[in-house]
């Protein structure tokens, strides 16, 4: 009987290991930058080409390596960071397994150049697919330079599954952003196809680094975190409500300066904000946890992206209490906050005027008509028999009973009492109008902005925005690119007048970053249009007059496509039959 079980050769082992450690170019960048950080660098320069598929170059000014260490560093499980099993408890360094360089080298053409302070000249080592091909002396300053070329050239199946260059470079950008936030005292430079994407000189504090990396509108909304609980400290920043984002990717978490994805931390953050931001929205937060190294296990994930806490309950309490203590900020005195917080004013005429001037300016009002009468215009005065038939459909035949708090309208017919959500209804109207505009290739009427809106984005966000800007332009926007990551909105569709444009654009970018829809252009377009409709739709309103409600009902009758649910699938109305009311009242 032949032996079927064999020991794998070293090359196969390295490639299997590479599959665990190096998932995409950003994974290789992470390992190389972590090595530079552990090498006591004060300046790190990263350059990539073609999203990192063609070239990744990491240059640092750290301690470097001597000749023997340079050769040894390319061997599997060769490391300067661990000596014995006991060192696995309380790991203080970013790397520790000693397999990153060997794994990366096995799936690329690599050149390693390094020199320590004791050598008169450095050394350059070349490898291909993990096999050393040559070496020679190399003149350089102290430090290390590693070049990774043609990543996955010898594993075509893995290379096939890499995404487009902009997509891959976006992942690298996000990674460098996190590394720069975690290490404010170290200078970071990121070049993407020779264009500078991040230029972050060494900073004196986390606050200085945050101000240098994020746009002004984010910085202006930040609240500082600073809290301690049983030997573990919490610091960082979060954007004060109601500032929020539509995805969890804007929560940045760090444990002992290591960027991580941790469910426990994210759950604690979301719990802290559960009662102060809109449901389905997420806070923007930078959370740094500093805990004794022996109370956190970083050796639980091949890419060191997850951790396990010795005292998870303490971590949850630390975050929840820290955020709640910091969130006791005092809002700036303004007529909006004063009106909303003063119970005596909620039913006053002053509050109605405040709402109309501050929160309802997103729609054109015509003297003698409600704002709903303008969407679409023809819905108010039918001009033909067909129009008359449409206007007598189910919505406009309903009787109006009144208005309820929180954006609800009370209606009835012969069989039931009906509660309508005006936000969901308006969202459906805008969405259907947008879809019709794209279907007929007819852009809605635009309105020039007196002061153009400047939108500042990260490199990843800018790329997603750039790829989908045509959809905005056919929706009535006029947008110009102003620098690598900045755009200027000069005109907007008339139905968006007065709405928070910055928030609308942020929602659009978040929708564009939904990678699950990248392979389905139609689904992505629908998702982007839903985002626009949701942001433009009127939010909770204190009151609508009868003509406005009637205009809304007529508009719903005339809209194409479904009108029973909003674009996200939530019901526009709820019916309570009179038979059900009789049963609840104890009547037969």
Give the tags.
single chain, 588 residues, alpha+beta, Heat Shock Protein 90, Ribosomal Protein S5, domain 2, Ribosomal Protein S8, Chain: A, domain 1, 3 domains, eight-stranded mixed sheet, five-stranded mixed sheet, 19 helices
Short description:
The strands form 5 sheets. Strands 5-4-3-6-2-1-7-8 form an 8-stranded mixed β-sheet. It is 35% helix and 23% strand. By secondary structure, it is of the alpha+beta class.
Query: Mind telling me the C-alpha Rg?
Result: 29 Å
Helix fraction, binned, reads 25-40%
The poorly predicted ranges are 81-90, 329-393
What is the CATH T-level topology of the largest domain? Ribosomal Protein S8, Chain: A, domain 1
CATH class of the largest domain: Alpha Beta
Largest sheet: 8 strands, mixed
CATH architecture classification of the largest domain: 2-Layer Sandwich
Shape, per Cα inertia axes: elongated
Strand percentage lies at: 15-25%
Number of strand segments = 22
What is the CATH homologous superfamily assignment of the largest domain? MutL, C-terminal domain, regulatory subdomain
The number of helices is 19
The domain count comes to 3
Tell me what you see in this structure.
With 588 residues, the chain is an alpha+beta fold. It folds into 3 domains: 194 residues, 2-Layer Sandwich (Heat Shock Protein 90), CATH 3.30.565.10; 113 residues, 2-Layer Sandwich (Ribosomal Protein S5, domain 2); 228 residues, 2-Layer Sandwich (Ribosomal Protein S8, Chain: A, domain 1). Strands 5-4-3-6-2-1-7-8 form an 8-stranded mixed β-sheet. β9 and β10 form a beta hairpin. α2 packs parallel to α6 and α6 crosses α15. About 13% of the residues have low confidence.
